[in-house]
Amino acid sequence: MREKNDLKLAVLIDADNIPYSNIKGMLDEIAKLGIPTIKRIYGDWTKPTVSGWKPALLKHAITPIQQYSYTTGKNATDSAMIIDAMDILHSQKVDGFCLVSSDSDFTRLAIRLRESGMLVIGIGEKKTPNPFIVACDKFIYIEIIGATETKPISTTKTKNVNLAPTTANKIDSIDDKFIKLLKRTIDDVADDNGWAFLAEVGSLIIKKKPDFDPRNYGFQKLTPLIKSLNKYFDIDEREVEKTHIKHIYVKNKNSYPNN
User: Fold this and answer.
1) Are 100 and 12 in contact (CB under 8 A)?
2) 246-252 and 195-197: which strand pairing?
């Protein structure tokens, strides 16, 4: 992914398809990615189904956009959000968009924004359809945002781990398919000796799998995730001359799962 320190982001939230319970966590996550210069939320504010959002709007300086449902069964909110996104795109005031929704109707919007050179971050629940996920540069699951307690997963077959009650049922198992993705990505960026800079590995995995995040597997960072899989990977921590910084390199061991 491109440099993100000073990226100006337009944050567009679909109130109809996102729970309001972790709005602070979502905004904190977005702040890691850039500066949210535009924050708008779309919904029919006359309906009780979105009333839970209202206290958060003033607190977090989010601008509510009223969109009436003109016809039963039709989601007018989607159209309003898409029109606004295109207006913002042509204003050239932002470097990227954060689309907060679990609705696949925004797939084409994400594709169009990326075609125009915009960084597109998606945030939604794990029920989000895959077409919307892969249309984004990066997709973050709401279920992992704000998780405070995790313990490493020690085997590739782990189904349940001893986590805090709020996160225990939201951790993905590390299966053979995921191990193969890691190994092949390491091969893609490795030098002649087989060593790959872990930061480059992480960046390439996100390009291949936009919803990749170590927190999906119970780890806060990629390094401890890789270290827990020492059956498949070697780790080399190299000190940078005249600094206290260490660069992490990873190398595949010979075996691939089920090969």
Assistant:
1) yes
2) antiparallel
Query: Would strands 63-66 and 246-252 be described as parallel, antiparallel, or unpaired?
Result: unpaired
Using DSSP bridges, classify how beta strands 233-239 and 246-252 pair: parallel, antiparallel or unpaired: antiparallel
Q: Are 229 and 242 in contact (CB under 8 A)?
A: no
Which 8-state DSSP code applies to residue 256? P
Q: How many helices, marked H, and strands, marked E, lie in the chain?
A: 8, 9
Q: What pTM value is reported for the model?
A: 0.82
Q: Output the six-digit token pair for 228.
A: 């827990």
Cα separation, 175 vs 184, in Å, equals 15
Kindly give the pairing relationship between strand 96-100 and strand 8-14: parallel
**CA 156 to CA 166: how far, in whole Å?**
22
Q: What is the pLDDT of residues 120-157, one digit of tens each?
A: 999 999 999 999 999 999 999 999 986 543 344 444 44
Residue 240 sits at φ, ψ, to 5 deg, of -85, 130
